[in-house]
């Protein structure tokens, strides 16, 4: 199965890109953030209103290079989804590659593939929030989910 993957190029350093992923999630993904995402072993929960949440553990964190999150708990309580816990057990891998003055940010969501029910909704969500991440890194202002 092909796991979801997407790469964006941002006009910033790998250091700033890493910082956004490790310490500034509420500024580009969702303002509903609890916990810590800065180092290996940290656990955090993100929410999108009352019906959607995801709890992740930082499995690996290599400054300016790579971050891996394991999804430990998740609920996507949307009426169109029969299986609302598909993210549990999936893994999100962020890879940062400096390219001159820019940085390539590649996200691979292991376990998010076209065979799972939320693929369209979730892959569209990734596109939306990767756009917010790029905007945040290039302008200082992202478009995170707000309650």
Describe this structure in words.
With 147 residues, this protein is of the alpha+beta class. The protein contains 2 helices and 7 strands. It has a 7-stranded antiparallel sheet with strand order 1-7-6-5-4-3-2. The longest helix is centred in the last third of the chain and has 21 residues, at 119-139. The mean pLDDT is 97.
Alpha-carbon Rg, integer: 14 Å
Shape label: globular
DSSP, total strands: 7
- Content-based structural category: alpha+beta
H/E series, N to C? EHEEEEEEH
Mind describing the biggest β-sheet?
Answer: 7 strands, antiparallel
Low-confidence stretches: none
Distance between the termini: 34 Å
Strand content: 35-45%
- Can you count the helices? 2
Determine the mean pLDDT: 97
How would the blueprint of this fold be written?
Blueprint: E1 4-10, H1 14-23, E2 32-35, E3 43-47, E4 52-62, E5 66-76, E6 91-99, E7 102-110, H2 119-139
Antiparallel strand pairs: 1-7, 2-3, 3-4, 4-5, 5-6, 6-7
């Amino acid at each position: 199965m092909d796991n979801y993957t997407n790469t964006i190029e941002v006009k910033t350093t790998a250091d700033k890109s890493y910082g956004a992923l490790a310490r500034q999630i509420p500024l580009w993904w969702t303002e509903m953030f609890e916990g810590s995402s800065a180092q290996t072993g940290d656990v955090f929960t993100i929410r999108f209103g009352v019906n959607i949440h995801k709890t992740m553990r930082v499995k690996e964190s290599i400054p300016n290079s790579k971050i891996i999150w394991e999804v430990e708990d998740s609920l996507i309580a949307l009426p169109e989804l029969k299986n609302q816990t598909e993210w549990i057990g999936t893994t999100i891998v962020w890879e940062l590659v400096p390219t001159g003055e820019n940085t390539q940010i590649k996200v691979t969501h292991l376990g998010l593939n076209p065979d799972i029910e939320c693929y369209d909704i979730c892959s569209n969500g990734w596109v939306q929030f990767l756009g917010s991440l790029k905007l945040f890194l290039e302008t200082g202002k992202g478009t995170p989910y707000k309650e």
